[in-house]
Specification:
single chain, 4-stranded mixed beta sheet, 9 helices, about 35% helix, about 15% strand, globular
Length: about 250
């Protein structure tokens, strides 16, 4: 099984690492290529490009200037212990036992505007570059054009014909994959909550549930679609009545 999730804008480079294990990103040369474009942009240009405040633009200008390779445990940090958003609260990587980290490393992939695709223990340096950013790189008009072929080919190399591919990434990030060219079907779980007598996808809860599903798969060693449908963390349960497409199972609470 392979699972993809989105990164997070909020980062944690302070909390003590629970493991000394790490790996190096597959597409570090491409990351260097992107940083060469970013490093030339002044804070004002970054603010306009990314629609962020002056303070955030200044912070990310500094990050771009400080970007350096090779990545080591002294100047970078494993991705799964660096991202700190809603998905990662659901995953709660810091409580994963050392014996489960190899399984997580084999199963989970994190899509990224700067790094393309990351294994959980791949080292990253602090950055901000959302996949939807309209950054022109050479003849590529944006990051989707820059990454799509490379990421799709890379995933196809990792995907086995009889294994599940679970998409728990946002539309913004999964858009960097050419789904039609993937050699296996994509399973995209949907998480809905009752609010005002209506079932709705509530962003915060849905993001956290995506992380919780990754944790559930890791905890239970889920392997089949039926295993996925048994997901019951955070009081969610599979609803066949609300599932309109077999490859988009709906979980409600």
């Amino acid at each position: 099984m392979k699972i993809v999730i989105s990164p997070a804008k909020s980062l944690d480079f302070e909390t003590k690492l629970p493991s000394k294990k790490f790996s190096v990103p597959q597409f570090i040369k491409e990351s260097e290529q992107l940083n060469k474009v970013l490093v030339k942009k002044k804070p004002k240009a970054l603010s306009e490009l990314m629609s962020i405040s002056d303070n955030l633009a200044q912070l990310n200008w500094e990050r771009n200037q400080q970007f350096s390779t090779p990545f080591t445990i002294d100047n970078a940090r494993p991705a799964v212990f660096s991202f700190n958003g809603d998905v990662y609260q659901g995953l709660d990587a810091f409580s994963i036992g050392e014996d489960k980290l190899d399984k997580l490393q084999d199963t989970l992939r994190i899509l990224s505007g700067l790094y393309g695709i990351l294994k959980p223990l791949d080292l990253i340096q602090p950055y901000r570059l959302e996949m939807g950013t309209k950054l022109k790189v050479g003849r590529k008009k944006n990051l989707y054009e820059f990454w799509k072929e490379s990421l799709t080919n890379h995933l196809n190399l990792e995907l086995e014909n009889d294994k599940l591919f679970i998409n728990l990434a946002s539309n913004e990030y999964f858009g960097a994959i050419d789904e039609k060219k993937l050699k296996v079907p994509v399973i995209t779980p949907i998480f809905k909550d009752w609010k005002n007598d209506k079932l709705k996808v509530i962003s915060f809860f849905a993001k956290k549930a995506r992380g919780s599903m990754v944790r559930y798969i890791l905890d239970t060693d889920a392997k089949t679609l039926e295993d996925i449908r048994s997901f019951n963390y955070d009081d969610y349960e599979f609803s066949r009545a609300h599932t309109l497409k077999e490859n988009q199972p709906v979980f409600i609470r």
